[in-house]
Predict the 3D structure of the following.
Amino acid sequence: MKVYIDGKFYSEENAKISVFDHGLLYGDGIFEGIRAYNRRVFRMEEHIDRLFDSAKAILLTIPMSKEEITEAVLDTLRQNDVSEGYIRLVVTRGKGYLGLSPDRCKTPSVFIIAAKLELYPKEYYENGLSVVTVPTTRTNPSALNPAVKSLNYLNNIMAKVEGKLAGVEEVIMLNSEGLVAECSGDNIFVMKRGMLYTPPIYMGALGGITRDVIIQLAHKLDIPIQEQPLTRYDLFVADEMFLTGTGAEVIPVVQVDGRVIGDGKPGEKSRQLLDAFHHETQNTGTPI
């Protein structure tokens, strides 16, 4: 594997950052998870735009233009001969010192990893996931807005740990008001009486790229959709439920906190949207 770091490629063994990098010391940085399908990068422009939005929000100056970042991502895929896989694009505040203040971090660092990814086993896509609600709540937007895709993911990791202790692969996270925010790494959609619902971004969810694609596809397929606050009750009584994310793609949920969703099998609309999403990933994107 060849890893891109600040304009050069290094072997996996020699790909290193400083122990004084604020991304390592304090989670001071941002990232994007991007997918490549059929020798194309899916929704490249949207991912790069979100990266720069996250950087602006935390006053981090990315030392490359959008065009340069795009070419670096494509070159990393070429160097690793990856035509279908996952790209992790990271920008850290850079090397500083042990204090919190970022003013000694003179040069932000950019690194890119391209590799294969299988987030969930195939059977989960065919049979659906079971999920639980966890005690760890989503970070309050007044603290660190979840819209910033930062390197500080301990909130999500603790939720994931609680899910593992409960024997499930994914979890539901609520916001500080007890409303549904998102999962540890995925956005949430439910179907009820023919209407598709998803929590608004202001509820504490990340503005997912896959989430946006599903909203667009729902409009194309004439599936009515609303963004509105959801409670756990809304999940329990849903006719269908599925999760979306760059890594997860579109994955059905068949049980929430012991309550069976619908008939306990992936729903018709979920499968329809999954098929439409797969068609989109195989036929659109930035050529590698």
Observations:
- The mean pLDDT is 95.
- Helices lie at 22-26, 44-57, 66-79, 122-127, 154-165, 209-220, 232-236, 268-283.
